[in-house]
Amino acid sequence: MTRIDFDALVALLRRIFVAHGASAAVAEILARNCAGAERDGAASHGLFRIDGYVSTLQSGWVDPRAVPVVEDVGAAFVRVDAANGFTQPALAAATPRALAKVREAGCCVVAIRRSHHFAALWPDVEPFAEQGLVALALVNSMAVVVPHGGSRPVYGTNPMGFAAPRADGGILVFDQASSAMAHGDVQIARREGHALPPGTGVDADGRPTTDPAAVLDGGALLAFGGHKGSGIAMMIEIMAAALTGGQFSFEVDWSAHPGAQTPCTGQCLILIDPARGGTLAGFTARVERLIAQMHAAGQDRLPGDRRFATRAQTLREGIPISAERLARLEELALG
Ligand SMILES: NC(=O)C1=CN([C@@H]2O[C@H](COP(=O)(O)OP(=O)(O)OC[C@H]3O[C@@H](n4cnc5c(N)ncnc54)[C@H](OP(=O)(O)O)[C@@H]3O)[C@@H](O)[C@H]2O)C=CC1
Ligand SMILES: O=C([O-])C1=[NH+]CCC1
User: What is the pTM of this model?
Assistant: First the structure.
């Protein structure tokens, strides 16, 4: 293992995206996003995803030069047509308008459609919480999750990311799939030869299995927490696809693009100015009171703590990377 500096990793990933057809603006956003996941130790959506991005770009399934179209459709509603590009550039394009609406109306819905999301959600919500806002992001993906009691996949792994400001200027963040495990982690388990915990998925015949290959090759994942997670996955389909005009996970059809891996669906963000419920200081004091009770009850760490600790360490010491992976990235950067 060696270590790479965050900025050097961003520069290397930027070269890979540009070499595979991305515009400079899209490459910059995706490179920061993916390097940020690796920096934070978010393995399922860091460098592990680069081969998937590249094979998707080579397949012609996504437009890496897409220019998103931002539509102002109400006092607190912004719609974005990502134009078959990646979601993060569409969100970046909508952000100034959305922030202006939050300042005016106290809240804003951002509804993004025709968008590819292949990443973690916390990068989508953290910047808003750092500006004193509460942010909730919902994304659907590709049909790999069986609805509770069903026998074939309908839902995506449908993550939700939530962030809120804290009293000390920090933020509280959670970000999780609504499946028992993220699809990326099942792929990592197969690569590393690990069994899955019982209750993660079923094989092609609908039988419970702990074999990641059986889940990935014709099987499916289960929602976390039985019917409760299944209900959340359903809600996310409605918010990220029905509300935005994006595709449901079961509508994603990339069969004409062998190698494609990025689901083209939709994303919904809800931004709220907590000061409208009183004052920002009052809100953050209430958040701290809740956190104090959680700690007092024995919760030893908050969601986000592991990532923030990893981030602090890797920014200090560099991001660990194997020589083999670094060589592979250098090779991909040549196009
Ligand atoms: N784009 C897409 O379509 C999809 C993306 N994803 C992404 O995959 C990533 C991983 O998802 P998933 O595997 O479900 O996430 P995890 O189960 O690893 O973590 C979910 C959340 O719980 C927190 N957490 C974990 N363990 C504890 C603990 N013991 N006590 C308190 N909090 C804890 C994590 O904080 P911490 O981060 O600090 O560990 C995180 O905020 C997410 O970033 C998600 O957005 C998933 C599905 C689809
Ligand atoms: O890990 C996951 O479940 C996914 N990540 C991007 C699409 C689905």
Answer: 0.97
